[in-house]
Amino acid sequence: MSKAAVVLIFAGLFLAGGVISFWKQKIPKGVIVVLALGSVLCLTSGVMRL
């Protein structure tokens, strides 16, 4: 397992936590969508590097 994969997976999970937090705080949907897309991209690229 490479360091880059671990960092990308960690970043994706961190951003996913931000999505959940922003959803509970009723932040505008556009911000949540952009954050969710970033999270999905990080997780996907991290898993593909495994």
How would you describe the shape?
elongated
Q: Count of DSSP E strands?
A: 0
Estimated structural class: mainly alpha
Major sheet details:
none
Q: What assembly state would you assign to the polypeptide chains in this entry? A: single chain
* Helix share, percent: over 70%
Number of helices: 2
Strand content: under 5%
Mean pLDDT level? 95
Radius of gyration: 12 Å
Distance between the termini: 6 Å
Helix-strand sequence? HH
Short description:
The chain is mostly helical and 50 residues long. The protein has helices at residues 3-24, 29-49.
Describe what this molecule looks like in 3D.
The chain is mainly alpha-helical and 50 residues long. The protein is elongated. It is built from 2 helices and no strands.
